[in-house]
Every structure is written in structure tokens, then in C-alpha cells.
Amino acid sequence: MKSLIPVLHDFRKAFLKPAILVLLPIFIVLGIAMSYFVMSIVSQQYPATNIIAIAIYNGSICEAHGYIYDVTGNPTSGELVVMDQKGSVIYSKNLDSYFSISGDDLCKLFSEESIRIQLKSGYGKYDVNLRRGVVPSRSGVGEVRYVLLYTGDTKFDITNVAIPKLYRLIILSNTRGEARLILGIANVTSGIFSGLNMVIDYGFANLQVSDIMRSLSQSIEIVRNISFKRLGMVNTSIINVFDLSINKSATTLILRLTYPDNRSEYLLEPYIGKPDAETLYVGGLVAPTSSIGYSLFAQYFPIILLYLAYVLVAKPRSSGALEFVLARPITRLDLYLVRYLAGILITVIASALFLLGIGIASAILIGITLDIYSFTILYLGLIAALTSFYSLCYMVASSTRSSSYLAIAIALYLLFAMFWGMIALAISYISGGGLMGVTETGYKISYLNPLSPATIFAPYYVQKHYSISTTASEDLINPILAILSPIAWIAITFTIGYIRFRKINLSS
User: Fold this and answer.
1) Do residues 178 and 308 both lie within one domain?
2) 88, exposed or middle or buried, with CB in 10 Å at 0-12, 13-18, 19+?
3) Nearest CA to 379 among 360, 404, 353, 403?
4) In a shared domain, residues 268 and 287
């Protein structure tokens, strides 16, 4: 325990430097801000706030039942706003998750005039699609009018005009085969919402476009070959949410809706090639080419490490403070190792706080976060890259005085963080690869860059884990070299630095 005291002492001194106290919170906030950025990427395909609802008007009363949900299909809240042709609000209502509303104002949904509907939330404004329908009333006198409200890629089915259906399949994870189905279904002929006592089964098939365009209820040969599983029951609920596992080798989800009299209807939803929310999230988070994301931290946090090596070694050496410290019963190895470990400790903690900020904010804002494997890979990538660069700066700091150190360290940072792509471009042209060979050259020389574990290797393996296509192939990223590269950077620079530090004159 006593051996840790000097490390913690130097850690505290370095951590309490004004620059560190300012920059560390900035990077933590950056982790949270990244979640907003990634959410904007995901919401381009999956709106952050959605609605699925069925409303009816029987001539005397208007009522609606629906569901407000987020990117992953979990309940959330929003404001439904109806506007006329001029953009003036004629109806608005704050709605929360599962809702049932009624009133004369709601009847404006059934107006023959052109209206525009939006769903507002803290994440933005989203257009709501509207589909109107009319069915004869059960009594045979008059009619019942209904409206379907939905956002995103929700599908509707009015094959049975008396029982309109809305359904949306949200692919949560193609990797794990996780999906969520939101189903809105109602019997509107009576003028009031009534239960259906319907059984929902599901199965999968590899269907071509021509099959999908046909009415599946008439394609007995297709249905006969499908193995259905029970999904659930639809009793009195208008809106139902089901979790299910998708078949990754199939192309289409088929729902079988069975009525009490054993009549069946079929709904189908193609999902092959449909980007899932998780893939969009991971792609936005770890894309190596992203100017905002995980790579941003890996690219700019080394500035703090450059400064740490300066305040822990280069500056005190120039002022004679290191020679004063050695007047105590401490060896040069102890001094070199303690201050080195203090910088590493800051790296470990800062990286953890950054990823923790991403994980918590993403879970709250989007409802999606990385799995343990991906967090581990990204964390190890950050630690490997930042420790490698810190070891390089520490080696330079142990061998030079403050003014020379800053010039050399800044040049090294610019080389590895900013100009490495230009070097790859130059090598590609010299070797005859031209512009087309830049990417391949960049991967081949990445093992010579101490920052590559965070900027290239870790993102590559996370994207591979989620089956996200990358510009790299397996023959360009060698896992053994990806591991040996940071080990070599750390071991070689640490050893050379100590050899120089042991022999150098520490007097000012």
C-alpha cells in the first residue's frame, strides 16, 4: 500500500492542474454530447419520437387509442399537433405512452379539409401520416369513419375494412436477431372500440418481391411451408407491443392473425437489408472517419497526455525540481516509474469516464448502448493507444528540457494525429497505388502509429462484431500485430526513456 502513495501523490498533483481540471470535464461532456449526435444519425432512419394510433367517429363522438414510442419501441411522450392549410394550430394534445382520448376537438382529424399533423418532443418535430377510411355501421344505419395515424415506416392493412391494422417492425439488433413489433388493430364497425380475441402467430420465409406483392392469404402453397410460433393474444387492447427473435437467414416476417371463428389473415413485413437501430448507433459512434465520435476523443485527448509528460518530467527537470526530489531516499527508477504510472492512471480514469458518459447518455436518450464486449474493446483500444502515445511523450520528456520537449512532442502529435493520412497518401502514390490504394496503405502502416489501437483497430473489431461493413478486410488488420504494436510502442519507449533518464544530468 505504501508503494502506491507516491503514485497517488503525483496523480493528485497532475490531476489538479488547471488545464487537466478544465479539459477532463470537457471530454466527459463530449461523451454525453456524442450521444445526441449519434441519436441524430439514428433518427434519420428511425424518428426519435413516433406514434401509432387509430381514431373513430360514429357521428356523435370522436375517440382515439394509440401509443407514443421511441427509437426502440419503448414508451415515451410527445405532443400531437394538428394544423390547417395556413399552418395554424387547430388541435393539440400532450400524450404519454399508451393513450386513450376523446372529445369534440378530436373530430377535426376527420375534417374533409387538408390538415397537417406533427408529433413534437424534446428531440424535434416529426410529420405524422394520416389514412382515412369509412365502413358501414354494424346496425346498418349510418357509417363509421376512422383515421389511422402513424410515423416512420409503419405499414397499414385495410383488406378487412372493418378491422384496420397498423404494424411496425423495429429491428433492434441484426447481430442478436432482436426485434420489436408494434401492432394496432381494432374493430370499428360498432362505433366503439371492441375486443377481438385474436391469436397472433409469426413465422419467416424467403420471399421474392413478386411474392410480397401478391396477397399472401391467396398463396396457400407459401403459407403451408411456414412454421408458425405463438406471438401472443389480442383481447381488448388496441395497441400491442411484442418482442420477438428474427430469423437472420430469412427475408420476411409473416404474421398470422386468427379470429375466434378460425378465419385467418396474414400480414408480412420484409426486413432483409433493413438497417437496425443498433447498427446505425454503432456506426455513428465508432466510425473511424467520423469527425465527431469516439475517434474524436482518441485524436484530441493525446494533447492532455502531451501536457502531462511536460508537467511531470520536462518542466520539473528544467527547473531542477527532479534533482531536489532525488535528494530524498528514492532512486531514479522509483521517480521515473512513479511519475509514469501517475500519467497512466489519469489516462485509465479519463477513458473510463468518457465511455461511461457515452453509455449512460445513450441508454437514456436512445435506449441503445454498446454491449460489454464492445465497451471492453473500445476501452482497451483507448488505453493501448493513449498509453503508447504517453510513453512516447514521456520518453522525450525524460531526455530533453521543457522548450525542446514541447517542440518535439507537438511535432510528434501532429505527425501521428493529423498528418498520418497524408503520409499514407504519399506512400501510396510512390508505390504506384495512387488514390485507390490510400486506404490499403493506411491500414498497412497503421501498426507504426501509436494511436491506431483507438482510431483503427478497436473501431474495426467493434464494427465486425456488429456485422457492419468496413473499408478494411481481414487480411489488412492482423489481430496479432494489432496487439503487438502497442506493446512494442510502450515497452520500447519506456525502456529507452529510462535508460536516458538514468544517465542524464538532472540539474537545471
Assistant:
1) no
2) exposed
3) 353
4) no
pLDDT tens track of the chain, all 508 residues? 445 555 566 666 666 667 667 777 777 777 677 767 776 767 767 788 899 999 888 777 888 999 999 888 889 999 999 998 888 898 899 998 899 998 888 888 887 678 899 999 887 889 999 988 888 776 666 688 889 999 988 888 887 778 888 999 988 888 788 899 999 988 887 666 666 778 999 999 887 655 555 545 455 566 677 889 999 888 777 899 999 998 888 888 999 988 888 888 888 888 877 777 777 778 777 865 554 567 778 888 898 899 888 888 877 776 665 655 555 656 778 788 888 988 888 889 888 888 888 888 778 777 778 889 999 999 999 999 999 999 999 999 888 877 889 999 999 999 998 898 889 888 888 887 776 678 788 888 999 999 999 988 998 898 888 877 776 666 778 899 999 999 999 999 999 999 988 877 665 5
Closest C-alpha to 123, from 174, 49, 58: 49
Beta bridge mates, 180 = 170, 243
Report d(CA 13, CA 18) in Å as an integer.
Answer: 10
> Residue 370 belongs to what domain range?
4-41+279-503
Indicate whether 100 and 220 sit together in one domain.
Answer: yes
By the 10 Å C-beta count (0-12 exposed, 13-18 middle, 19+ buried), 183 is classed as buried
From 87, 96, 92, select the one nearest 69 (Cα to Cα): 96
Is 313 within the bounds of a domain? yes
Task: Examine residue 508 and state whether it is found in any structural domain, yes or no.
Answer: no
